[in-house]
Amino acid sequence: MDMPDWVASVDPCDADCPSRDLLDLIGDRWSLLIMLVIGQGFHRNGEIRRRVGGISQKMLTQTLRALEANGLVARHDFATVPPHVEYRLTPLGVSLGHAVGPMFQWIEASYPAVLRARAAYAARQAQAA
Amino acid sequence: MDMPDWVASVDPCDADCPSRDLLDLIGDRWSLLIMLVIGQGFHRNGEIRRRVGGISQKMLTQTLRALEANGLVARHDFATVPPHVEYRLTPLGVSLGHAVGPMFQWIEASYPAVLRARAAYAARQAQAA
DNA sequence: GCGCATAGGTACTGAAAGTTAAGTACGCAC
DNA sequence: GTGCGTACTTAACTTTCAGTACCTATGCGC
């Protein structure tokens, strides 16, 4: 079994283990996507909403609040009228960006393999039925 | 802005982009936890359920099916009575394990920083109110 | 032959998440 | 002075998630 070190270092059985808590945060449907777009240089609410296809205004605001509350994104409100607010990654947010890089690379590299696995699974199901 | 390369290589705006699809799969609440436990050497339904605290039988079955359908976990049914089924990581599953390793390391390393950020945010909220 | 164990499947139900649509408050161009 | 744009907030509605409870089939101990 060729598994990396983290199999020993994280214990999901432990309710106090940070894995549950933070996995819920960054395993969220939109969080990483929003951080990605901010990292690409889009800092304003409207810009982000237009870049992240399919997100509603409510989810964007809600997710940005959660990211801000956890120190991953900094919110700068210029307190002008009309409103002008900018979001930027904090150093902590940037470090998370680096940590999930390999995962995104895996997604890109492995997508074809996953599609093949799905097709094979569907074929097995059809055959069994 | 010190962001890694993947900010340019993945485009969440594109509905065809694999990021959405696979992020939903592995960003699931239980998938990574279950793969972790299987990687630790627990291969049977009951073993996994006892290791992953808080999961119900239904969610375990459901998640294992999804992982199997996507080629991350292999299911071996020995077709005996009483039933004996074993789950193991496929090579694809092991490669995903490696890819999320840095993320788990980040979680362990950054948890204190996140807790501090939360406390600071709560203090700001209390002050504003 | 009763109940327990295994590894699930299925249906019902409540909770949570997310969507749409509308409202807030102001300035600016037309 | 009508409508647009910004960055939200709120309410009502819908969809999805997840847990409980009960069901399959079989051999074992008693």
From TrEMBL, chains A, B:
Is Transcription regulation among the key words of this record? yes
Keyword set, alphabetical order? DNA-binding, Transcription, Transcription regulation
InterPro entries xref list: ArsR-like_HTH, HTH_HxlR, WH-like_DNA-bd_sf, WH_DNA-bd_sf
Q: Report whether Transcription shows up as a keyword of the record.
A: yes
Q: Which residues form the HTH hxlR-type domain?
A: 17-115
Instruction: Determine the domain of life of the protein's source.
Output: Bacteria
Among the Pfam families in the record, one is: HxlR
Name this protein carries in UniProt: Helix-turn-helix domain-containing protein
Which organism was this protein described from?
A: Sphingobium naphthae
